[in-house]
Specification:
- 31% of the residues lie in helices and 26% in strands.
- The chain has 6 helices and 9 strands.
- Helix 5 crosses helix 6.
């Protein structure tokens, strides 16, 4: 999935993350021992659905999952959106590790946020309904969402207000996790 150079950079990223995690809560204390499997490999698996030349916007980037990891893994143009100033400062430091272009936007997402990309990603940010709502101003071809075991309930809830096509892919790192690939979404009025 990644070459030796990228693996070495990801190890440096992991070290930086652990250092910063002592001062600000980037990842839970319970997952510190599982960073590689639970966070890094979980993020890297999205490379199976991304062309390295796709422009990516990662919302609610936090500790850099999946955006920083995808950039280190070879994606040429990644924008990270994070409203927490402390986490944005960390992302600026982590971005220096990647040889690829990373732009960091310190802004709260709402319906007025606008941008263009090929793929919008997020991990642990919010429900599908809320993601679709706050990213209405983002022109994109598809969304790649890393979701947990309640993904089916989130899809059902989102379909009350939104029309979209989707594919569900099994996670390579968790038997409960899924990758949702959403396309052609639009808000609708489905009440009778």
């Amino acid at each position: 999935m990644i070459d030796d150079v990228s693996r070495g950079v990801l190890i440096k990223y992991q070290e930086l993350l652990l250092k910063w995690n002592k001062a600000i809560n980037l990842i839970s204390k319970n997952s510190v021992s599982e960073i590689w499997e639970r966070h890094i490999l979980d993020s890297l698996q999205l490379l199976n659905y991304i062309d390295r030349f796709d422009k990516i916007i990662d919302i609610g980037s936090g500790a850099g999952f999946p955006g920083i990891v995808l950039s280190i893994g070879g994606v040429k143009d990644v924008t990270l959106v994070e409203c927490d100033t402390r986490k944005a400062v960390f992302l600026h430091q982590a971005a220096k590790l990647s040889p690829n272009k990373i732009t960091i936007i310190e802004e709260r997402l709402d319906e007025k946020f606008s941008a263009d990309c090929d793929i919008l990603t997020c991990r642990g940010f919010s429900t599908i309904t809320n993601i679709l709502l706050v990213t209405q101003g983002v022109n994109r071809k598809k969304l790649l969402l890393l979701k947990g075991e309640s993904y089916d309930k989130e899809i059902e809830e989102a379909q009350k207000d939104w029309l979209f096509n989707f594919k569900v892919h099994d996670s390579m790192t968790s038997n409960k996790g899924k990758i949702l690939e959403i396309t052609d979404e639009r808000k609708g009025n489905f009440s009778c």
